[in-house]
Specification:
Helix content: 25-40%
Strand order of the largest sheet: 1-2-3-4-5-6-7-8
Number of helices: 7
Strand content: 25-35%
CATH superfamily: Ribonuclease Z/Hydroxyacylglutathione hydrolase-like
Order of helices and strands: HEEEEEHEHHEHEEEEEHEH
Number of strands: 13
Number of domains: 1
CATH architecture: 4-Layer Sandwich
CATH topology: Metallo-beta-lactamase, Chain A
Radius of gyration: 22 Å
Length: 257
Amino acid sequence: MSSPSPMTSLRPCALLLLLTACATTPSVSPTSTDEIVLAEDVRIRRIAPGVWMHMTNAGKEWGFTPANGLLVEDGDTSILVDTGWNPRHAETLITWARDSLRHPVRAALVTHFHMDRTGGIPTLDAQGIAVHAREDTARRATAQGNPVPHQRLSDAQDFGPLSVFFPGAGHAPDNLIVYHPASGILYGGCFIKDAAAKDLGNLEDADTAAWPASLERARAHYPDTRVIVPGHHAPGGPELLVHTEALLREAPPAASR
């Protein structure tokens, strides 16, 4: 029997090398559930079909604090919920949505007037992307000197594939929550604390006296919530409402307004 030619014996090796390379090359598909790093301080992760959680880190002036938001697909476009801490964060998210996800941002909304929600508005304005918020949010952003959203939301309305609702004062007097009915995801923003939180965080504009009743209205308005995305740190389930209520019971009386 003749021995195989050198070319024949090399073919299985070449095939094995090719398969190994394919298996070890990390996927960069925008449908991956893995976290995608867009910049040193901007990351994004799919948490349900058509729903992405973005995470941006503040600069030194805000203690490098991480903040969450959403990017929600709406047909061939998408909606940005909260804008990141600064215009560059918003620019990074908008560019990714357009060039990688292929769902360019058509509109945005912000959940209250603080900078971790409104900081990217100048980029959206410059690109002609309308930013929506409650009238109270626009008024408070103006008074604070923060970027101002120019389109208005009512206290309860549908917004594309989303539902928005003002449950009452809590972390801020104007805090809005956002629900994605198709997935059961509730974006609580800073109104709801993450499971690892040991306290209520920034209470400068909080109303801890009104907050418990506001949480109950949120629970009643969206009873089918399965996942909650807080304004900072890791998502959880409806237990985050219970955890926030427990933190409120422990809050010092001086924090009440």
